[in-house]
Amino acid sequence: MTQHAALSVAHNRAVLVEQLRRLLPGIADFHKTLPFGLPAIDSRLPKGGLACGALHEIVPAPNAIPAAFGFIAAILARHFSSVAPIVFVLPACGFSPSGRLHGHGLHALGLDPARLILVETAHRRDALWAIAETVRSGAPAAVAGFIDKLDLKSSQRLHLFAAEAALPLFLLRPAQNLESSAAATRWRVGTAEAARDRFGLITRPRWQLQLERARNGRPGEWVVEYDHVAHRFSLAAALADPACARGTSKKADRQAHCA
Amino acid sequence: MNEAAEACGLSRGEPVADARAKAGFLQVRGIDPAADDAALRRLALWATRYTPTASPYDEENGADGFFLDIEGAAHLFGGERNLIADLAHRLECFGLPARLAVADTPGAAWAAARFHPKLSPILRRETGEDEDCRSSYVILSSGEEATALSPLPIEALRLTPEICVPLRRLGFKSIGALMDQPRAPFAARFSAQLMRRLDQAFGRLDEPLVPIRPPPVYHTLRYLLEPIATQEAVVALSHRLMATLAHVLTRDDVGARVLRLSLYRVDGDVKTLDIALTLPTRSATHVARMIALKLDAAATADDAGFGFEAIGLAVIRAEAMPARQTELAAPSHPSPASGGGSEWGHADKTERCAVLIDALRQRLGPSSVRRFKAVDSHIPERAEVLAPVTGEALTGLAPEQKAEKPRPLLLLPHAEPTEVTALVPDGPPRRFSWRGVSYEVAGAQGPERIGAEWWRLPPFSAQCRESDRQSLTRDYYLVEDLGGHRFWLFREGIYGRETADARWFVHGLFA
User: Fold this and answer.
1) Considering only CA atoms, which of B256, B214, B227, B222 is closest in space to residue B238?
2) CB-CB contact of A211 with A224 (8 Å)
3) pLDDT tens digits along B390-417
4) What angle do CA B19, B24, B28 make, to 5 degrees?
5) Hey, is B248 helix, strand or coil?
6) B206-236 exposure pattern, b = at least 16 Cβ within 10 A, e = fewer
7) Which positions 16-45 of A are in contact with B (Cβ < 8 Å)?
8) DSSP assignment, residue B343?
């Protein structure tokens, strides 16, 4: 009897929490998530995936801006296959040391470049304004941007806008000046040796992912690879033995020395 | 020459030394036709507050004034007389004495403005409105041209001296003397200009005016009792102007694609803002917001001077915009609070996208919002361009780009030279250094050979081509270093055939 009562209390509480959640802005859509399809990663994230109406920070490891951008493109390609456009807010000078975005390269990652709308801004102030404006309009399916410096207040604003519009917002942040922010997750993306087929041709890019911060989640570290045809992530470690990988790199070392 | 100089007895064509002898306090300034033209143009733009069709004189007309086509606009000011009086008064307030005339034809108005006896006497033939003594105006009522023009000298017909001088020699000093003569001998004796000008003055021949700005499709203008200077006031007023325009636009089933906001300053200057929209619109809220953003970016309100006394909003380009049923619970524009993406219809999405793109464009500049457009070329840096997003492109998707070959995610704006060590001269790289860092190659994939586009090269001799970088074949390699960074390298030129020592470049970075 007491057990039954306790159960009903728990049930009532769950209903109440659900009702309260609905009252908060944007929380109704909060349970819409973007799962990776990898239990190892998804189990670390609340609700089993990247929250849809939230700000996510992607931080590249040194010299890994292309990898970080590739990771964003892979997530976008995997989850947003409808016709709604995706907006990229980029500095007008490109990613200054690493060149400009190449449409054919995006296509090679499975993201249709015709769906992209590129917004180029000259100053950080304009970039922040453009990102906020884009997110608030609710018109695109997703927004990605590059911001070199972001204070806590701006990140809170952006996060709120994203929650209200139920849009995922990905911000690429350079690693030099990372302030605390209101982002739901922070990923550090590094490079890793690509997956090759038996002829030694690169088939799938691999990235070293580090979930540094996750609100209501647990951090973790993985090496994932991405298949641009199937839009699928998979764990690299499950396929390639780390010891084996080390072996190849040693072999390559030796070859390099010979050369 | 100004009035004071004339009072001293100076005249045109006099040497400066003589003039100085007559008036020792004389100040001499060089003539600046460009500044004169600019000032006249500014004044003509200002005059568009009376009518959209203002046409500055061309060279043949003397280039010192402008025509205003006030047909259909005069009643807005309570008749021609009130309009011209208002214009004369305002010009006088600017310190610009002018001679004004209203007539049925541009030719007659030109003649009357220059030579009508009721106006202040002409001291100098060639000088125009800017230097007259008294501001005044005449109005030739309809059908009165013949009597009004007949006592005027033949120069009033806008004839070149090559025609005027022989005519005077023949005894034709006034228009009246010329008017009733048989046409055939004159047509045979003089060039066609004489008869053309005569006919134009009396309305027998049409004289098209070239407006200073193409006249808008729809136009609305509001005069203010009290000048306004703040941005909020401008935006609020343009909202109301667009609301009045919206009725007409709805009636004609069109929407505005390009709008122009004209701000008439009290001191006679005109500021114009052009607002181009991605999709046709009739929404006053949207237009007002675009104007607010544009004003933010241009900081026009800062140089409002003493304020704006009139504000005009014109639709420069209108496009068909069929009426569409609005949704019942359609939220107003900046309403992020309600609605996830799925509830929105496709048309609504497109519209919201267009609204967003418009807003971004007004603040960041017209070329800031772009999209990739594939170009049919194998050369990587030529294989795509960034094209501005248009409303048509929003609704339909561009054709898919096909790339079976590896392509980098980031392409360097210019291929950067690099030092490469390779086992064999035309083999894949083993080690390379780029930007001062050396990379050990773990694996290289390639080559992918991309030839030059010979049809784009200038037709020079073979020696010239060798030195030309564009004409060399490139061998691209996808290279991965030990740290997992992936690069796109190419070697320029084929050994033995195109070059003796090939150079290597880094061209892109893979994800």
Assistant:
1) B222
2) no
3) 765 554 444 455 557 888 989 988 888 8
4) 60
5) helix
6) eeeeebbbeebbbbbbeeeeebbbebebbbe
7) 25, 29, 32
8) G
Provide, as residue numbers in chain B, all residues whose Cβ is less than 8 Å from the Cβ of A64.
Answer: 485
Cβ pair A104:B430 closer than 8 A = no
Lowest mean pLDDT among A104-118, B107-121, B282-296, B336-350: B336-350
Residue A139 and residue B421: Cβ atoms within 8 Å?
Answer: no
> Nearest-CA neighbor of B282 among B327, B313, B242?
B242
Identify the weakest region by mean pLDDT among A181-195, B206-220, B230-244, B474-488.
B206-220
d(CA B233, CA B242): 14
pLDDT of amino acid A131: 93
Judge: A105–B357 Cβ closer than 8 Å, yes or no.
Answer: no
Is pLDDT at A241 greater than 60 in this prediction? no
Which residues of chain A does B412 touch, with a Cβ-Cβ cutoff of 8 Å? 98-100
Q: Where in chain B is the domain with CATH 3.30.1490.100?
A: 216-325+349-402
Give residue B325's pLDDT: 60
- The predicted model gives B248-261 an average pLDDT of 88
Mutate to test the interface with A, among B390, B401, B410 (most CBs of A within 10 A): B410
Model confidence band, residue A256 (pLDDT cutoffs 50, 70, 90): very low
- Residue A130's nearest CA partner among B297, B269, B104, B113 is B297
> What are the structural domains of chain A?
26-258 (3.40.50.300)
| Whole-Å CA distances, B152 to B135, B155, B195, B375 | 20, 8, 17, 66
B342 has pLDDT over 50: no
Predicted-assembly ipTM surpassing the 0.85 threshold:
no
B-chain CB neighbours of A102 within 8 Å are 380, 384, 407-411, 508
Which residue do the tokens 């045979």 mark?
B188
Choose from A65, A98, A104, A146 for mutation: most chain B CBs within 10 A.
Answer: A104
Name which of B368, B423, B511 is nearest A109 (Cβ-Cβ): B511
CATH architecture assigned to B216-325+349-402 = 2-Layer Sandwich (3.30)
- Please name the residues between 186 and 215 in chain A that touch chain B, using a CB distance below 8 Å: 190-194, 196, 200-202, 205-208
Cβ neighbour number for residue B460 with a 10 Å cutoff? 11
Tell me how far the alpha carbon of residue B155 is from its chain's centroid. 36
Average pLDDT of span A122-142:
89
Give backbone dihedrals phi and psi of A189, rounded to 5 degrees, phi first: -110, 125
Q: To the nearest whole angstrom, how far is the Cα of A216 from the nearest Cα of chain B?
A: 23
Calpha distance B205→B183 (Å, rounded): 15
The answer to whether the CB atoms of B340 and A29 lie below 8 A apart is yes
CB atoms B370 and A69 under 8 Å: no
